[in-house]
Design brief:
One of its GO terms (molecular function) is acyltransferase activity, transferring groups other than amino-acyl groups. The chain has about 150 residues and is α+β, with helices and mostly antiparallel strands. It has helices at about 10-25, 40-45, 100-115, 130-135; strands spanning about 1-5, 50-60, 60-70, 80-90, 120. Strand 3 (about 60-70) and strand 4 form a beta hairpin. It starts with a strand and ends in a 15-residue tail after the last helix.
């Protein structure tokens, strides 16, 4: 497996994988657009000095992705900046092999070099498998976003 920073040449495949994530998460969020839903500003994640979009390749195919983006923290928190993790994806046939853990570890190491030591990510609370996997990596529940739709 090869771990490397994404480039603009990867955009087409990254957009496909973004749609795969949206499709997989649609059962957890009925308000996601059926067409045209996007989660990430992929070109900015690739070119910004405050982010690392990492891909994992096996035999020339992208099998996993993830990014860390340095963001300003809320004024109420003790840290001024934090690392936000997103686009955590592993192709289904490679899940359960520890690839996501390795991606997260590499992203955190990259951010620690930039003096970032606090990390956040979003996960649907009803996605029990993902919540469990992140807890095994040391993440804790901090804030639950709640929503209501009324016509």
């Amino acid at each position: 497996m090869i771990y490397r920073a994404a480039t603009e040449a990867d955009l087409s495949k990254l957009e496909e994988l973004e749609q795969a994530i949206i499709t997989a998460e649609r059962p957890f969020n009925q308000t996601l657009k059926i067409e045209g839903a996007k989660y990430y500003d992929l070109p900015a994640l690739i070119t910004s000095g405050d982010s690392l979009l990492l891909i994992v390749e096996l035999e020339g195919e992208i099998i996993s992705t993830g990014y860390v983006q340095i963001r300003d923290s809320k004024q109420s928190l003790i840290h001024e900046k934090h690392g936000y993790l997103g686009f955590m994806y592993v192709e289904p046939q490679y899940r359960g092999k520890g690839i996501n853990k390795l991606v997260i570890e590499r992203l955190i190491e990259w951010a620690k070099v930039k003096n970032i030591h606090d990390f956040y990510l979003d996960v649907y609370s009803s996605n029990r498998a993902a919540v469990s996997a992140y807890k095994k990596l040391g993440f804790d529940d901090t804030l639950v976003e709640m929503a209501v739709h009324k016509k």
